[in-house]
């Protein structure tokens, strides 16, 4: 049914659960699996952070961490018999959900599987929800995995 499954990941336990679900679906349906991670640097803005931290060093470190995360997820998929594609995406000035929406459209994903933290209250107000924002803009079906 689904031939192209896109899986955005971060370092959370819900992301690990979404990885397991994606591997299972890709294996059962003989689907292609693309695992992506979005690097977002510069909160609240690069200009405000410039004097406080080294933005280039931060970007380099986040890039390395994202690549390590992708490599581990790909290794997990391979051990389960699924050969994934991986992609390290950069949000720059865009919102993470918008970057994921573009990736899903450009890669022609049939299904997007993503974990959600299930934040509520003040934590939700502070952190927001990439999954919730993505649901509003996505053109493909979405499977949300909660922890």
Characterize the structure shown.
The chain has 147 residues and is α/β, with parallel strands linked by helices. It has a single domain, classed as HUPs (Rossmann fold), CATH 3.40.50.620. Helices cover 50% and strands 20% of the residues. A 5-stranded parallel beta sheet has the order 3-2-1-4-5, sandwiched between helices. It starts with a strand and ends with a strand.
Helix and strand layout, with pairings?
Layout: E1 4-8, H1 13-29, E2 32-39, H2 46-49, H3 55-79, E3 85-90, H4 96-107, E4 111-116, H5 121-127, H6 130-137, E5 142-146
Parallel strand pairs: 1-2, 1-4, 2-3, 4-5
Helix pairs in contact: 4-6
Strand content: 15-25%
**What would the average pLDDT be, to the nearest integer?**
87
**What shape does the CA trace take?**
globular
Order of helices and strands: EHEHHEHEHHE
Quaternary assembly: single chain
Helix fraction? 40-55%
**Extended strand count:** 5
Q: What summary fits the major beta sheet?
A: 5 strands, parallel
Distance between the termini: 25 Å
How many domains?
Answer: 1
Examine the secondary-structure arrangement and name the CATH architecture. 3-Layer(aba) Sandwich
CATH superfamily: HUPs
Salient structural properties:
50% helix; Rossmann fold; 20% strand; 147 residues; globular; single chain; 5-stranded parallel β-sheet; alpha/beta
């Amino acid at each position: 049914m689904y031939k192209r499954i896109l899986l955005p990941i971060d370092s959370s336990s819900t992301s690990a659960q979404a990885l397991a679900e994606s591997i299972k679906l890709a294996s059962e349906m003989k689907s292609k699996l693309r695992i992506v991670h979005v690097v977002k640097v510069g909160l609240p803005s690069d200009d405000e952070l410039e004097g406080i931290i080294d933005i280039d060093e931060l970007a380099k470190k986040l890039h390395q961490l994202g690549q390590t995360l992708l490599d581990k997820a790909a290794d997990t998929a391979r051990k389960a018999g699924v050969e994934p594609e991986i992609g390290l995406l950069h949000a720059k000035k865009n919102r993470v959900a918008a970057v994921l929406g573009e990736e899903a459209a450009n890669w022609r994903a049939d299904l997007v599987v993503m974990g959600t933290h299930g934040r509520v209250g003040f934590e939700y107000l502070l952190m927001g929800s990439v999954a919730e924002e993505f649901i509003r803009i996505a053109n493909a079906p979405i499977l949300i995995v909660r922890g």
